Amino acid sequence: MQQTVSTTVRVKLPSLTNRKADLLAREYEAFQTEVHGGDADLYSATKQQASKVRRQKDPNPDTEQPVVLRNDVFDVSYDEDTVLSSWWVKVPVYDPERGRGNSIWCPAHVPHKDEQLVQEGDVRDSELVRRDGDWYIHLVVKRSVTVQDEYDDVLAIDMGARWVATCAFLSDRKTTFYGEEVRRIREHYKQLRKSIGKAKPRQGQQVVERIGDAEARKVDDRLHKIARQIVGDAEERNAVIVVGDLGAIRKDNDKGRYVNDKTHKMPFARLLNYIEYKAHDAGIDLQLVDEYDTSQTCNRCACEGVRATQGRFECPGCGLDDNADKNGALNIGKRALGKFSRPLSEAGAVLAQSETQVIVHRDEEPANLSVSVDSTPSGGTPRL
């Protein structure tokens, strides 16, 4: 089955001149002003995108939004003869010296593994992002892939604050928890930044910016390994992959300062992008599913449950006492099959595409559940 899919490629903009860096910073800050209801001078097409973001997302005042770059005024070019960089990105900006819109060509670092995709794919509307003092373009590239249309199982993925990904097969409920090492890396660099800032308040910021790349590389490496493991497991069982829609994780999801901090700093979108890309390369389909209420509903009887703690789910109806993230993942998988007509379908139950035949063995749920964790958590194994 042929599909057109989108893949996001993270491209860094290194070696910027002071003028180009200042123009990017000015455009970025002006975009924040616009999306939060103010008025600022922006490149005309970008100003239109800011209004669209404000209408559709109504972002919180204390959040930063990536600058949306419309593909008709934005370009990516490859020239192997240039000395500074072989890849260049044309970014539209407002130039206050000229009093009008302008475009600047910025050197870009496209990951080697993504070069062919960027050259051959169709680059669509993309995003300008600032992180730890560095500039990135998140290139959205469309491509055509072939995925199979018959499967023997469903691998459902729930992304959350404690585990970056909880993966459960519907056939036997075998569950794997991923994310302990990602949290450990992030916590290590968080403490390192604090200690550097206290020891050398003047030079600390420069050091912090330098170690930011090291953190990003380590997290990225771990995310790639997680994605490969997930797709490999799906291949082994001939399973379609279904994932809870990431929008619900960040919107209207106030669970307290500690959990909010952990949730909003987890690299969900990046991991999803890696899983999707690797799955499509393996010929496996990936479906997004509305995850509304999946964490509050019992996967066994569909009753509303109780979250006594962040990691525990209890059902007053059937007595299920289980790991909350695993319960959510199983609900996501069952919602993709349309297994529950109520109450999940009323919350937007999504069936697999009509041309996709998903075959799942519906034997009685086993009494002994198979569970694995990608690394032993310091706080003990997940409650099952």
Task: Write a structural description.
With 384 residues, the chain is an alpha+beta fold. It folds into 2 domains: 2-145, no CATH class; 150-373, no CATH class. The chain is 34% helix and 26% strand. It contains 9 helices and 19 strands. The chain has helices at 18-35, 44-57, 115-120, 180-199, 204-237, 247-250, 257-264, 268-281, 324-337, and strands at residues 2-12, 67-69, 75-78, 87-95, 100-108, 122-123, 126-131, 134-146, 150-151, 153-158, 165-169, 175-178, 239-244, 286-289, 306-309, 312-314, 321-323, 357-358, 371-373. Strands 14-13-10-11-12-19 form a 6-stranded mixed beta sheet, with helices on both faces. Strands 1, 2, 6, 7 and 8 form a 5-stranded antiparallel beta sheet that branches. It has a 3-stranded antiparallel beta sheet with strand order 3-4-5. Helix 5 (204-237) runs parallel beside helix 8. The chain is globular. The two termini are 38 Å apart.
Mean pLDDT: 79
Whole-Å distance between the termini? 38 Å
Strand order of the largest sheet: 14-13-10-11-12-19
> What's the Cα radius of gyration?
22 Å
What's the multimeric state? single chain
* Strand-pairing-aware structural class: alpha+beta
- List the uncertain runs: 249-264, 339-371, 373-384
* Helix-strand string: EHHEEEEHEEEEEEEHHEHHHEEEEHEE
Quick one: biggest sheet? Answer: 6 strands, mixed
Number of continuous helical runs: 9
Shape: globular
State the helical fraction.
25-40%
- Strand residues, percent: 25-35%
Q: Tell me how many strands there are.
A: 19
Q: How many domains in all?
A: 2
